[in-house]
Amino acid sequence: MDLHAAQRLARALMDEHGLAGWGLRFDRARRRAGVCRHDRREISLSAPLTALYSADEVRETVLHEVAHALVGAKHGHDAVWRAKARSIGASGRRLVSDDAPQLEGDWVGTCPAGHRVTRFRRPARPQSCARCSRTFDRRFLLAWTRRGVPVPGASPLPDGGTPGGASRPSPVPDPADVEPGDRLRVTVPGRYHGVVGVLVKRGRTRFHLRVRRGVLTVPFGGAERAG
User: Which pLDDT tens digit goes with each residue over 7-37?
Assistant: First the structure.
């Protein structure tokens, strides 16, 4: 969809649902279509993906984020958010449709079952298939290629082991794969080690987790999925 037309559509939908005072912008995100930033009172859309989407897909993306704005950050993708999304005309799905266009990264990971993911940067740690297991499982490790060429050592196991070894805790999540409402466990040594919190914001380098005593900021490399 033409970005100018997408901007007009998004602005009209935001105004229609009471977000006239919120900002709207485009960003360069390549993996997620949109994001609601409650702290800035702003909705941001991926320019590269919006340009690939149809008008219906842009509408779905905008209404998805409008629903986040209306219910607040604490709800994530829970039942309250789903109900609101559906009430304003969105599907209520957490993720975009499998049929929606995607930007392909140079790095392609394939699991033993044939599921496929792409990345724009070299994997920094072992990753297993999220469709086969919600937590890290060596049985479903991704095998990586870069521009079609296999790269066997792209994501070695921490101990140099093999997929048949003992299971380990779920790895630090890819920041691009977690969203407000997800539960993360702190792995940084210290007084907060092992504490589980709910993600309320993803900053440039740190997760913002709501814990019992307030909001805790944790480096991207200092948390894992809590299941």
Answer: 999 999 999 999 999 999 999 988 889 999 9
Considering only CA atoms, which of 31, 220, 57, 52 is closest in space to residue 118? 31
Q: Does the 175-225 domain belong in CATH 2.30.30.30?
A: yes
Enter the tokens of residue 63: 């209404």
> What six digits make up the tokens of 47?
């320019």
Q: Are 18 and 70 in contact (CB under 8 A)?
A: yes
Q: Check: pTM over 0.70? Answer yes or no.
A: no
Is the domain spanning 3-87 CATH 3.30.2010.10? The answer is yes
